[in-house]
Amino acid sequence: MMKDKKTKMNKVILITGVSSGFGQQTARFLADKGYIVYGTVRSESDQGDLVHYLRMDLTDLSSIKKAVSDVLEKEGRIDVLINNAGMHSGGPIETTPIEIIELQMDTNFMGMVHLTRSILPVMRKQGGGTIINLGSIGGLMGLPFQAYYSASKFAIEGFSDALRMEVNNFNIKVIVINPGDFHTNNTRNRRKYLAPPVADDPYVDQFTRSLAVIEKDESNGSSPEILARKIMKIIECRNPRQRYIIASFDQKLALFLKYILPATWFRKILEFHYKIK
User: Fold this and answer.
1) Catalytic residue chosen out of the listed positions 53, 149, 244, 274
2) What residues have CB less than 8 Å from 3, skipping those under 6 apart?
3) I want to staple 21 with a disulfide (CB 3.0 to 4.6 A). Which of 82, 146, 151, 184 is the partner?
């Protein structure tokens, strides 16, 4: 028991986006359990807990390199990287402003790429590590009026599949977690990046109906603590699976139906759910 505790205490975890939601719950939970946890935020933070906070912006490569350097200077290693940080946008494909599209992809995908590339030499030299990438149910099926969010999460899927094969010989594990709807601040944060529903937008009525469904699903979602506990189990597992889908029964059923039903049938199911008329 003492040996297990010592091993846990020595394991250094870097998790991105810990100011709220999944990241905050997971960082605090792991720190409380005895891990050495470094969490990234975009502005200075001292939340009075056991997490070591780092200032980092995923759209700024220099801040990514500095955050990694700071952890290495203090700890000498990084055992687990949890690519959690991201943003949620919403709006029609045609009328979403290009700057929101670019920010969505730069944050959710390219930022993760830059950070992972900065961590890989560290894990290779130390003889291994674990990389956990937060995908989404929306990265396994395209969702209406969340196209660019879905695209960023689909990109994580392909990236993780390729990375897993490339780093296997270096004892680096790559795991993807696909959460369903959880009750976090995603709804509030998305509203900062919504395509404006101007009166002459041809999609405004459909968008408004679908957005109401999306936000209702999120408000009825599970507690992020469920995800935090699952991540700890993954970290402690000697041979974790490549993928963990952490979602409601209905969402898991939807994924199952996606692969067994004709594509047009499954599309009709999604259109009905999201009130596409």
Assistant:
1) 149
2) none
3) 184
